[in-house]
Specification:
Distance between the termini of chain A: 46 Å
Helix content of chain A: 40-55%
Structural class of chain A: alpha/beta
Oligomer: homodimer
Largest sheet of chain A: 8 strands, mixed
Largest interface: A-B, 97 and 97 residues
Strand order of the largest sheet of chain A: 3-2-1-4-5-6-7-8
Strand content of chain A: 15-25%
Chain lengths: 259, 259
Protein backbone atom coordinates (compact mmCIF):
# COMPACT_ATOMS: atom_id res chain seq x y z
CA UNK A 1 0.00 0.00 0.00
CA UNK A 2 2.75 2.44 0.97
CA UNK A 3 4.22 1.96 -2.49
CA UNK A 4 1.28 3.82 -3.96
CA UNK A 5 2.15 6.88 -1.97
CA UNK A 6 5.87 7.21 -2.31
CA UNK A 7 5.89 10.55 -4.10
CA UNK A 8 5.22 13.24 -1.54
CA UNK A 9 4.77 17.02 -1.78
CA UNK A 10 5.23 19.06 1.40
CA UNK A 11 2.98 22.09 1.57
CA UNK A 12 4.58 24.25 4.25
CA UNK A 13 8.21 24.49 5.38
CA UNK A 14 7.92 25.11 9.11
CA UNK A 15 9.15 22.94 11.98
CA UNK A 16 6.72 20.07 11.43
CA UNK A 17 7.26 19.94 7.65
CA UNK A 18 11.03 20.07 8.12
CA UNK A 19 11.33 17.23 10.63
CA UNK A 20 8.65 15.10 8.99
CA UNK A 21 10.11 15.64 5.52
CA UNK A 22 13.62 14.65 6.63
CA UNK A 23 12.33 11.55 8.39
CA UNK A 24 10.11 10.45 5.49
CA UNK A 25 12.98 10.83 3.05
CA UNK A 26 15.17 8.72 5.33
CA UNK A 27 12.41 6.07 5.44
CA UNK A 28 12.40 5.82 1.65
CA UNK A 29 9.69 8.25 0.62
CA UNK A 30 10.48 10.55 -2.26
CA UNK A 31 9.88 14.21 -1.44
CA UNK A 32 9.33 15.64 -4.91
CA UNK A 33 8.61 19.27 -3.98
CA UNK A 34 8.37 21.77 -1.14
CA UNK A 35 5.88 24.64 -1.24
CA UNK A 36 6.03 27.68 0.98
CA UNK A 37 4.89 31.24 0.37
CA UNK A 38 8.13 32.33 2.06
CA UNK A 39 10.94 31.78 -0.44
CA UNK A 40 13.60 31.63 2.28
CA UNK A 41 11.81 28.77 4.07
CA UNK A 42 10.96 26.91 0.88
CA UNK A 43 14.50 27.00 -0.45
CA UNK A 44 16.05 26.12 2.93
CA UNK A 45 13.97 22.96 3.32
CA UNK A 46 14.24 21.99 -0.36
CA UNK A 47 18.01 22.39 -0.01
CA UNK A 48 18.11 20.08 3.00
CA UNK A 49 16.07 17.50 1.10
CA UNK A 50 17.84 17.98 -2.23
CA UNK A 51 14.55 18.57 -4.00
CA UNK A 52 12.76 21.38 -5.84
CA UNK A 53 10.60 24.11 -4.35
CA UNK A 54 7.96 26.61 -5.37
CA UNK A 55 6.39 29.68 -3.82
CA UNK A 56 3.37 29.67 -6.12
CA UNK A 57 0.34 27.40 -6.17
CA UNK A 58 0.39 27.70 -9.97
CA UNK A 59 3.48 25.53 -10.11
CA UNK A 60 2.56 23.04 -7.41
CA UNK A 61 3.30 19.64 -8.91
CA UNK A 62 0.22 17.71 -10.02
CA UNK A 63 1.82 14.25 -10.03
CA UNK A 64 2.46 13.33 -6.40
CA UNK A 65 0.64 10.52 -4.57
CA UNK A 66 0.42 12.33 -1.26
CA UNK A 67 0.22 16.00 -0.29
CA UNK A 68 1.13 16.73 3.34
CA UNK A 69 -0.10 20.15 4.42
CA UNK A 70 1.67 21.66 7.47
CA UNK A 71 0.80 25.32 7.58
CA UNK A 72 -0.56 27.64 10.25
CA UNK A 73 -4.14 26.81 11.14
CA UNK A 74 -5.13 30.36 10.22
CA UNK A 75 -4.21 29.91 6.54
CA UNK A 76 -4.95 26.19 6.20
CA UNK A 77 -8.59 26.41 5.19
CA UNK A 78 -8.12 29.12 2.58
CA UNK A 79 -5.29 27.16 0.97
CA UNK A 80 -7.05 23.81 0.58
CA UNK A 81 -9.06 24.36 -2.65
CA UNK A 82 -6.02 25.46 -4.65
CA UNK A 83 -3.96 22.54 -3.32
CA UNK A 84 -6.53 19.97 -4.39
CA UNK A 85 -7.65 21.46 -7.73
CA UNK A 86 -6.36 19.40 -10.65
CA UNK A 87 -4.94 16.76 -8.28
CA UNK A 88 -8.17 15.00 -7.29
CA UNK A 89 -6.68 11.48 -7.54
CA UNK A 90 -4.14 12.05 -4.79
CA UNK A 91 -4.38 11.62 -1.01
CA UNK A 92 -4.40 14.84 1.02
CA UNK A 93 -3.59 15.12 4.70
CA UNK A 94 -2.95 17.91 7.14
CA UNK A 95 -0.87 17.66 10.31
CA UNK A 96 -2.82 20.02 12.58
CA UNK A 97 -3.97 18.73 15.96
CA UNK A 98 -6.79 21.20 16.25
CA UNK A 99 -8.24 20.99 12.73
CA UNK A 100 -11.04 18.49 12.09
CA UNK A 101 -10.66 16.10 9.17
CA UNK A 102 -13.87 17.61 7.81
CA UNK A 103 -12.02 20.69 6.52
CA UNK A 104 -11.29 18.53 3.46
CA UNK A 105 -14.92 17.54 2.93
CA UNK A 106 -16.35 18.70 -0.39
CA UNK A 107 -12.86 19.73 -1.52
CA UNK A 108 -10.89 16.48 -1.79
CA UNK A 109 -12.03 12.93 -2.47
CA UNK A 110 -9.39 11.05 -0.49
CA UNK A 111 -8.26 12.81 2.66
CA UNK A 112 -7.15 12.46 6.24
CA UNK A 113 -5.00 13.70 9.08
CA UNK A 114 -1.46 12.73 10.09
CA UNK A 115 -0.83 14.40 13.45
CA UNK A 116 2.57 13.91 15.06
CA UNK A 117 2.19 14.90 18.69
CA UNK A 118 5.61 16.26 19.55
CA UNK A 119 7.21 19.62 20.14
CA UNK A 120 9.35 20.53 17.16
CA UNK A 121 12.14 23.10 17.24
CA UNK A 122 14.17 23.73 14.11
CA UNK A 123 17.41 23.66 16.14
CA UNK A 124 16.84 20.22 17.59
CA UNK A 125 16.68 16.82 15.84
CA UNK A 126 13.56 14.73 16.45
CA UNK A 127 13.63 11.01 17.15
CA UNK A 128 10.39 9.83 15.57
CA UNK A 129 10.81 6.54 17.40
CA UNK A 130 9.51 8.41 20.45
CA UNK A 131 6.70 10.36 18.76
CA UNK A 132 3.03 9.44 19.05
CA UNK A 133 1.16 9.82 15.73
CA UNK A 134 -2.61 10.14 15.56
CA UNK A 135 -4.17 9.30 12.21
CA UNK A 136 -7.60 9.56 10.62
CA UNK A 137 -8.79 9.10 7.01
CA UNK A 138 -12.07 8.95 5.16
CA UNK A 139 -11.15 5.68 3.37
CA UNK A 140 -9.98 2.49 5.14
CA UNK A 141 -7.19 1.96 2.57
CA UNK A 142 -5.83 5.43 3.11
CA UNK A 143 -6.04 5.02 6.88
CA UNK A 144 -3.86 1.93 6.43
CA UNK A 145 -1.42 3.91 4.27
CA UNK A 146 -1.07 6.60 6.94
CA UNK A 147 -0.58 4.03 9.68
CA UNK A 148 2.16 2.33 7.67
CA UNK A 149 3.79 5.65 6.94
CA UNK A 150 3.95 6.61 10.62
CA UNK A 151 5.10 3.10 11.57
CA UNK A 152 7.87 3.27 8.97
CA UNK A 153 9.28 6.21 10.97
CA UNK A 154 9.37 4.00 14.07
CA UNK A 155 6.55 6.00 15.66
CA UNK A 156 3.72 4.79 17.87
CA UNK A 157 0.46 5.11 15.90
CA UNK A 158 -3.01 5.63 17.29
CA UNK A 159 -6.32 6.14 15.49
CA UNK A 160 -8.14 9.20 16.79
CA UNK A 161 -11.33 10.96 15.78
CA UNK A 162 -11.21 14.70 15.17
CA UNK A 163 -12.73 15.39 18.59
CA UNK A 164 -10.22 13.12 20.31
CA UNK A 165 -7.40 14.81 18.42
CA UNK A 166 -8.60 18.21 19.54
CA UNK A 167 -8.63 17.05 23.15
CA UNK A 168 -5.12 15.65 22.63
CA UNK A 169 -3.98 18.98 21.31
CA UNK A 170 -5.32 20.82 24.33
CA UNK A 171 -3.84 18.15 26.62
CA UNK A 172 -0.49 18.63 24.87
CA UNK A 173 -0.67 22.39 25.40
CA UNK A 174 -0.92 21.75 29.13
CA UNK A 175 1.67 18.94 29.34
CA UNK A 176 4.19 20.57 27.01
CA UNK A 177 3.70 24.28 26.28
CA UNK A 178 2.44 25.17 29.74
CA UNK A 179 4.92 22.90 31.54
CA UNK A 180 7.68 24.61 29.56
CA UNK A 181 6.32 27.99 30.61
CA UNK A 182 6.56 26.85 34.24
CA UNK A 183 10.26 26.20 33.52
CA UNK A 184 10.52 29.69 32.02
CA UNK A 185 9.01 31.33 35.09
CA UNK A 186 11.36 29.28 37.25
CA UNK A 187 14.34 30.44 35.15
CA UNK A 188 13.20 34.04 35.46
CA UNK A 189 13.11 33.82 39.26
CA UNK A 190 16.48 32.08 39.51
CA UNK A 191 18.04 34.70 37.28
CA UNK A 192 16.64 37.46 39.44
CA UNK A 193 18.28 35.99 42.56
CA UNK A 194 21.57 35.10 40.90
CA UNK A 195 21.15 31.31 40.87
CA UNK A 196 21.86 29.11 37.82
CA UNK A 197 18.89 27.51 36.00
CA UNK A 198 21.13 24.47 35.56
CA UNK A 199 20.58 23.66 39.26
CA UNK A 200 16.92 23.08 38.42
CA UNK A 201 17.51 20.51 35.66
CA UNK A 202 17.69 17.39 37.87
CA UNK A 203 14.36 18.34 39.40
CA UNK A 204 12.78 18.91 35.99
CA UNK A 205 14.03 15.53 34.79
CA UNK A 206 12.85 13.69 37.86
CA UNK A 207 9.43 15.34 37.63
CA UNK A 208 9.07 14.20 34.01
CA UNK A 209 10.42 10.71 34.75
CA UNK A 210 8.14 10.15 37.70
CA UNK A 211 4.93 10.12 35.66
CA UNK A 212 6.15 7.06 33.77
CA UNK A 213 5.51 5.10 36.98
CA UNK A 214 3.00 7.12 38.97
CA UNK A 215 -0.02 9.01 37.69
CA UNK A 216 0.49 12.79 37.83
CA UNK A 217 -2.02 12.95 40.67
CA UNK A 218 -0.09 10.38 42.70
CA UNK A 219 3.18 12.14 41.86
CA UNK A 220 2.02 15.57 43.05
CA UNK A 221 4.21 17.09 45.79
CA UNK A 222 4.68 20.61 47.13
CA UNK A 223 3.06 23.06 49.52
CA UNK A 224 -0.31 23.27 47.71
CA UNK A 225 -1.10 19.53 47.92
CA UNK A 226 0.17 19.47 51.55
CA UNK A 227 -2.02 22.52 52.19
CA UNK A 228 1.00 24.14 53.82
CA UNK A 229 -0.37 27.67 54.08
CA UNK A 230 2.73 28.89 55.94
CA UNK A 231 5.04 28.10 53.05
CA UNK A 232 2.59 29.33 50.46
CA UNK A 233 2.31 32.70 52.23
CA UNK A 234 6.10 33.09 52.21
CA UNK A 235 6.22 32.25 48.53
CA UNK A 236 3.52 34.81 47.77
CA UNK A 237 5.51 37.39 49.76
CA UNK A 238 8.61 36.68 47.67
CA UNK A 239 6.48 37.20 44.54
CA UNK A 240 5.06 40.51 45.81
CA UNK A 241 6.68 42.52 43.00
CA UNK A 242 5.78 39.94 40.32
CA UNK A 243 1.99 40.27 40.04
CA UNK A 244 1.63 37.83 37.11
CA UNK A 245 3.65 35.13 38.86
CA UNK A 246 1.84 35.73 42.11
CA UNK A 247 -1.54 35.40 40.45
CA UNK A 248 -0.50 32.19 38.65
CA UNK A 249 0.91 30.81 41.91
CA UNK A 250 -2.47 31.30 43.60
CA UNK A 251 -4.55 29.95 40.69
CA UNK A 252 -2.44 26.85 40.07
CA UNK A 253 -2.21 26.05 43.78
CA UNK A 254 -5.99 26.26 44.01
CA UNK A 255 -6.37 23.96 41.03
CA UNK A 256 -3.97 21.45 42.64
CA UNK A 257 -6.15 21.41 45.73
CA UNK A 258 -9.35 21.01 43.74
CA UNK A 259 -8.47 18.30 41.19
CA UNK B 1 36.05 17.16 59.21
CA UNK B 2 33.25 14.77 58.27
CA UNK B 3 34.59 12.33 60.85
CA UNK B 4 33.48 14.70 63.60
CA UNK B 5 29.92 14.43 62.42
CA UNK B 6 29.41 10.79 61.79
CA UNK B 7 26.74 10.21 64.44
CA UNK B 8 23.48 11.55 63.11
CA UNK B 9 19.99 11.87 64.60
CA UNK B 10 17.09 12.34 62.19
CA UNK B 11 14.31 14.50 63.57
CA UNK B 12 11.35 13.72 61.33
CA UNK B 13 10.53 10.58 59.35
CA UNK B 14 8.86 11.93 56.19
CA UNK B 15 9.99 11.61 52.58
CA UNK B 16 13.09 13.81 52.91
CA UNK B 17 14.27 12.21 56.16
CA UNK B 18 13.71 8.73 54.71
CA UNK B 19 15.66 9.22 51.48
CA UNK B 20 18.39 11.33 53.09
CA UNK B 21 18.77 8.91 56.01
CA UNK B 22 19.11 5.89 53.72
CA UNK B 23 21.66 7.66 51.53
CA UNK B 24 23.73 8.96 54.47
CA UNK B 25 23.86 5.50 56.01
CA UNK B 26 25.04 4.08 52.70
CA UNK B 27 27.74 6.78 52.53
CA UNK B 28 29.10 5.70 55.92
CA UNK B 29 27.27 7.96 58.36
CA UNK B 30 25.86 6.35 61.47
CA UNK B 31 22.19 7.13 61.98
CA UNK B 32 21.86 6.62 65.73
CA UNK B 33 18.19 7.53 66.20
CA UNK B 34 15.00 8.58 64.42
CA UNK B 35 12.50 10.88 66.07
CA UNK B 36 8.91 11.34 64.93
CA UNK B 37 5.80 12.20 66.88
CA UNK B 38 4.02 9.58 64.76
CA UNK B 39 5.07 6.17 66.10
CA UNK B 40 4.22 4.42 62.84
CA UNK B 41 6.55 6.70 60.81
CA UNK B 42 9.32 6.61 63.40
CA UNK B 43 9.37 2.82 63.65
CA UNK B 44 9.08 2.34 59.87
CA UNK B 45 12.14 4.48 59.13
CA UNK B 46 14.13 3.18 62.13
CA UNK B 47 13.33 -0.34 60.89
CA UNK B 48 14.65 0.47 57.41
CA UNK B 49 17.82 1.89 58.94
CA UNK B 50 18.21 -0.78 61.62
CA UNK B 51 18.41 1.85 64.33
CA UNK B 52 16.41 3.00 67.37
CA UNK B 53 13.55 5.46 67.44
CA UNK B 54 11.66 7.65 69.88
CA UNK B 55 8.39 9.57 69.81
CA UNK B 56 9.31 11.77 72.78
CA UNK B 57 11.72 14.69 72.98
CA UNK B 58 12.54 13.52 76.53
CA UNK B 59 14.39 10.54 75.13
CA UNK B 60 16.06 12.24 72.15
CA UNK B 61 19.69 11.13 72.27
CA UNK B 62 22.10 13.79 73.62
CA UNK B 63 25.25 12.30 72.10
CA UNK B 64 25.00 12.78 68.34
CA UNK B 65 27.30 15.08 66.34
CA UNK B 66 24.63 16.24 63.93
CA UNK B 67 20.87 16.66 64.20
CA UNK B 68 19.05 16.85 60.87
CA UNK B 69 15.56 18.30 61.25
CA UNK B 70 13.10 17.46 58.42
CA UNK B 71 9.65 18.30 59.66
CA UNK B 72 6.76 20.34 58.31
CA UNK B 73 7.58 24.04 58.25
CA UNK B 74 4.54 24.67 60.44
CA UNK B 75 5.96 22.70 63.39
CA UNK B 76 9.67 23.37 62.80
CA UNK B 77 10.02 26.56 64.81
CA UNK B 78 8.16 25.30 67.87
CA UNK B 79 10.29 22.14 67.96
CA UNK B 80 13.74 23.74 67.81
CA UNK B 81 14.30 24.73 71.48
CA UNK B 82 13.58 21.24 72.79
CA UNK B 83 15.83 19.67 70.11
CA UNK B 84 18.80 21.86 71.06
CA UNK B 85 18.43 21.94 74.86
CA UNK B 86 21.15 19.88 76.56
CA UNK B 87 22.87 19.24 73.19
CA UNK B 88 24.51 22.65 72.66
CA UNK B 89 27.82 21.19 71.41
CA UNK B 90 26.26 19.57 68.34
CA UNK B 91 25.61 20.91 64.85
CA UNK B 92 21.95 21.48 63.97
CA UNK B 93 20.55 21.77 60.46
CA UNK B 94 17.13 21.84 58.90
CA UNK B 95 16.29 20.77 55.34
CA UNK B 96 13.53 23.27 54.53
CA UNK B 97 13.86 25.36 51.41
CA UNK B 98 11.63 28.12 52.66
CA UNK B 99 12.96 28.48 56.22
CA UNK B 100 15.77 31.00 56.81
CA UNK B 101 18.85 29.82 58.66
CA UNK B 102 18.05 32.48 61.27
CA UNK B 103 15.35 30.28 62.85
CA UNK B 104 18.25 28.71 64.81
CA UNK B 105 19.63 32.06 66.01
CA UNK B 106 19.59 32.43 69.80
CA UNK B 107 18.66 28.75 70.14
CA UNK B 108 21.68 26.82 68.86
CA UNK B 109 25.37 27.78 68.75
CA UNK B 110 26.37 25.86 65.60
CA UNK B 111 23.70 25.66 62.96
CA UNK B 112 22.91 25.64 59.26
CA UNK B 113 20.74 24.40 56.43
CA UNK B 114 21.10 21.32 54.21
CA UNK B 115 18.48 21.68 51.48
CA UNK B 116 18.23 18.91 48.90
CA UNK B 117 16.27 20.32 45.99
CA UNK B 118 14.45 17.29 44.65
CA UNK B 119 10.93 15.90 44.68
CA UNK B 120 10.79 12.96 47.05
CA UNK B 121 8.09 10.29 46.95
CA UNK B 122 8.23 7.42 49.42
CA UNK B 123 7.44 4.91 46.64
CA UNK B 124 10.38 5.92 44.47
CA UNK B 125 14.13 5.61 45.08
CA UNK B 126 16.20 8.79 44.80
CA UNK B 127 19.54 8.98 43.01
CA UNK B 128 21.37 11.62 45.02
CA UNK B 129 23.93 11.81 42.24
CA UNK B 130 21.36 13.90 40.38
CA UNK B 131 20.22 16.08 43.31
CA UNK B 132 21.30 19.70 43.81
CA UNK B 133 22.03 20.50 47.47
CA UNK B 134 22.07 24.07 48.79
CA UNK B 135 23.96 24.58 52.03
CA UNK B 136 24.43 27.38 54.53
CA UNK B 137 26.02 27.47 58.00
CA UNK B 138 26.96 30.09 60.59
CA UNK B 139 30.53 28.71 60.97
CA UNK B 140 32.96 28.14 58.08
CA UNK B 141 33.99 24.72 59.47
CA UNK B 142 30.42 23.55 59.63
CA UNK B 143 29.73 24.84 56.12
CA UNK B 144 32.64 22.66 54.99
CA UNK B 145 31.18 19.69 56.86
CA UNK B 146 27.83 20.10 55.15
CA UNK B 147 29.45 20.47 51.74
CA UNK B 148 31.44 17.29 52.27
CA UNK B 149 28.36 15.48 53.49
CA UNK B 150 26.35 16.36 50.37
CA UNK B 151 29.34 15.58 48.13
CA UNK B 152 29.72 12.18 49.75
CA UNK B 153 26.23 11.37 48.43
CA UNK B 154 27.43 12.23 44.92
CA UNK B 155 25.29 15.37 44.87
CA UNK B 156 26.03 18.73 43.30
CA UNK B 157 26.53 21.27 46.09
CA UNK B 158 25.90 25.01 45.97
CA UNK B 159 26.20 27.63 48.70
CA UNK B 160 23.04 29.70 48.95
CA UNK B 161 21.89 32.43 51.31
CA UNK B 162 18.51 32.11 52.95
CA UNK B 163 16.98 34.54 50.47
CA UNK B 164 18.45 32.66 47.50
CA UNK B 165 17.17 29.40 48.93
CA UNK B 166 13.70 30.85 49.27
CA UNK B 167 13.76 31.95 45.63
CA UNK B 168 14.98 28.46 44.69
CA UNK B 169 12.11 26.94 46.56
CA UNK B 170 9.58 29.09 44.74
CA UNK B 171 11.35 28.38 41.43
CA UNK B 172 11.13 24.67 42.21
CA UNK B 173 7.42 24.94 42.90
CA UNK B 174 6.99 26.31 39.38
CA UNK B 175 9.38 23.91 37.61
CA UNK B 176 8.31 20.81 39.50
CA UNK B 177 5.02 21.01 41.40
CA UNK B 178 3.27 23.23 38.87
CA UNK B 179 4.73 21.43 35.85
CA UNK B 180 3.44 18.18 37.36
CA UNK B 181 0.04 19.76 37.79
CA UNK B 182 0.06 20.61 34.09
CA UNK B 183 0.60 16.87 33.48
CA UNK B 184 -2.32 16.13 35.82
CA UNK B 185 -4.66 18.48 33.94
CA UNK B 186 -3.52 16.89 30.68
CA UNK B 187 -4.24 13.41 32.09
CA UNK B 188 -7.67 14.55 33.20
CA UNK B 189 -8.54 15.77 29.70
CA UNK B 190 -7.22 12.64 27.98
CA UNK B 191 -9.19 10.46 30.35
CA UNK B 192 -12.35 12.41 29.60
CA UNK B 193 -11.96 11.79 25.86
CA UNK B 194 -10.90 8.15 26.17
CA UNK B 195 -7.24 8.59 25.19
CA UNK B 196 -4.33 7.03 27.11
CA UNK B 197 -2.04 9.35 29.15
CA UNK B 198 0.81 7.10 27.99
CA UNK B 199 0.57 8.75 24.55
CA UNK B 200 1.65 12.01 26.19
CA UNK B 201 4.85 10.65 27.78
CA UNK B 202 7.19 11.18 24.78
CA UNK B 203 6.10 14.80 24.64
CA UNK B 204 6.65 15.28 28.36
CA UNK B 205 10.12 13.76 28.11
CA UNK B 206 11.10 15.83 25.10
CA UNK B 207 9.86 19.01 26.78
CA UNK B 208 12.00 18.29 29.84
CA UNK B 209 15.03 17.24 27.75
CA UNK B 210 14.89 20.31 25.54
CA UNK B 211 15.75 22.77 28.30
CA UNK B 212 19.12 21.08 28.77
CA UNK B 213 20.12 22.65 25.45
CA UNK B 214 17.82 25.63 24.94
CA UNK B 215 16.63 28.11 27.53
CA UNK B 216 12.94 27.62 28.39
CA UNK B 217 12.15 30.86 26.56
CA UNK B 218 13.88 29.65 23.40
CA UNK B 219 12.19 26.26 23.76
CA UNK B 220 8.67 27.69 24.01
CA UNK B 221 6.25 26.39 21.36
CA UNK B 222 2.47 26.31 21.04
CA UNK B 223 -0.43 28.54 20.05
CA UNK B 224 0.16 31.22 22.71
CA UNK B 225 3.72 32.07 21.65
CA UNK B 226 2.66 31.93 17.96
CA UNK B 227 -0.28 34.19 18.90
CA UNK B 228 -2.53 31.77 17.03
CA UNK B 229 -5.88 33.10 18.23
CA UNK B 230 -7.81 30.67 16.01
CA UNK B 231 -6.41 27.63 17.75
CA UNK B 232 -6.66 29.20 21.18
CA UNK B 233 -10.35 29.95 20.65
CA UNK B 234 -11.01 26.33 19.68
CA UNK B 235 -9.17 25.13 22.75
CA UNK B 236 -11.19 27.45 24.98
CA UNK B 237 -14.37 26.10 23.37
CA UNK B 238 -13.34 22.54 24.16
CA UNK B 239 -12.77 23.62 27.78
CA UNK B 240 -16.19 25.34 28.01
CA UNK B 241 -17.43 22.92 30.69
CA UNK B 242 -14.13 23.01 32.63
CA UNK B 243 -14.08 26.55 34.08
CA UNK B 244 -10.87 26.06 36.13
CA UNK B 245 -8.94 24.67 33.15
CA UNK B 246 -10.32 27.35 30.88
CA UNK B 247 -9.26 30.10 33.28
CA UNK B 248 -5.76 28.61 33.66
CA UNK B 249 -5.49 28.25 29.89
CA UNK B 250 -6.16 31.97 29.47
CA UNK B 251 -3.89 33.11 32.32
CA UNK B 252 -0.91 30.95 31.35
CA UNK B 253 -1.23 31.84 27.67
CA UNK B 254 -1.21 35.51 28.61
CA UNK B 255 1.88 35.02 30.75
CA UNK B 256 3.64 33.22 27.85
CA UNK B 257 2.95 36.23 25.66
CA UNK B 258 4.16 38.69 28.28
CA UNK B 259 7.40 37.12 29.52
Amino acid sequence: MADNHKRVVLVGAGNVATHLGMALQKAGYEIVQVFSRTEHSASALAGQLGTEYTVSMETLRPDADLYIVSVKDAVLQSLLPSIVKGREEALFVHTAGSMPMSVWKGIAIRYGVLYPMQTFSKQRPVDFGTVSFFVEANEPDDLETLKQMASSLGAKVYEASSEQRMSLHVAAVFACNFANHMYALSAKLLDKYGMPFEAMLPLIEETADKVHLLSPREAQTGPAIRRDGNVMDKHLDLLADEPILQDLYKKISKSIQEI
